[in-house]
């Protein structure tokens, strides 16, 4: 009996997770790939600009922001969140390292649901579809509304498990 063959979604998302292991930010490893037809046209992960000290060398660059508390809690509640702003997000690096002509009508696979800024940029980049795995609830509603308005396919990969040892354990 032949080994179970990976479907294309699994194949490209697995590559995105492999790419994410290149990230040197201990807080978040994000990987993304650009696919046109069944052809891989680019890969990127979150990281500091080339030649600049990254999180593993200089530490994360932490900012604290208040954001709305998760749904189900008091409407007025705000929670303080820390995030690292040293890195260029994976999706933005993907746009910096691919050509517009390659992006026209292509699909972006990304390990994490894009944040608002990345989604906004992707929406104007020529791509036609975004496939992600890990949710990012903070920006979900506005990103989903943007994708709907822009007519882009936006879907979470269900029934998927990342390859072993490709997810950050810390996650704080
Ligand atoms: Zn960092
Ligand atoms: Zn982003």
Description:
Its cofactor is Zn(2+). One of its GO terms (cellular component) is cytoplasm. GO terms for molecular function: dCMP deaminase activity; zinc ion binding. Keywords: Hydrolase, Metal-binding, Zinc. The chain has 172 residues and is of the alpha/beta class. The protein has a domain at 8-47 and 88-156: Cytidine Deaminase, domain 2, CATH 3.40.140.10. The chain contains 6 helices and 7 strands; from the N terminus they run αββαββααβαβαβ. It has helices at 8-20, 55-58, 90-96, 100-103, 116-123, 137-150, and strands at residues 31-36, 39-45, 62-68, 78-84, 107-112, 129-134, 153-156. The strands form 2 sheets. Strands 2-1-5-6-7 form a 5-stranded mixed β-sheet, sandwiched between helices. A hairpin with a 2-residue loop joins strand 1 and strand 2. The radius of gyration is 17 Å and the shape is globular. The protein starts with 7 loop residues before the first helix and ends in a 16-residue tail after the last strand. Residues 89, 91, 114-115, 117-118 line the site of one zinc ion.
What topology emerges from the helices and strands here?
Layout: H1 8-20, E1 31-36, E2 39-45, H2 55-58, E3 62-68, E4 78-84, H3 90-96, H4 100-103, E5 107-112, H5 116-123, E6 129-134, H6 137-150, E7 153-156
Parallel strand pairs: 5-6, 6-7
Antiparallel strand pairs: 1-2, 1-5, 3-4
Helix pairs in contact: 5-6
The protein binds zinc ion (ZN) (2 copies).
Domain CMP/dCMP-type deaminase: 7-154
Family: Belongs to the cytidine and deoxycytidylate deaminase family.
Active site: 91 (proton donor)
């Amino acid at each position: 009996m032949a080994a179970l063959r990976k479907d294309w979604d699994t194949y490209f998302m697995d590559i995105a997770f492999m790419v994410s292991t290149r990230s040197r930010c201990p807080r978040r490893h994000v990987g993304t790939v650009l696919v046109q037809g069944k052809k891989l046209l680019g890969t990127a992960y979150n990281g500091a600009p080339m030649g600049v000290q990254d999180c593993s060398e200089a530490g994360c660059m932490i900012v604290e922001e208040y954001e709305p508390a998760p749904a189900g809690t008091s409407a007025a509640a705000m929670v303080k969140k820390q995030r690292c702003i040293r890195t260029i997000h994976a999706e933005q690096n993907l746009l910096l390292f691919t050509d517009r002509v390659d992006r026209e009508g292509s699909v972006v696979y990304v390990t994490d649901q894009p944040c608002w800024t990345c989604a906004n940029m992707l929406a104007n980049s020529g791509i036609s579809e975004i496939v992600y795995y890990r949710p990012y609830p903070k920006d979900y509603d506005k990103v989903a509304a943007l994708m709907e308005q822009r007519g882009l396919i936006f879907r979470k990969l269900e029934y998927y498990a990342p390859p072993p040892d490709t997810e950050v354990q810390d996650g704080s």
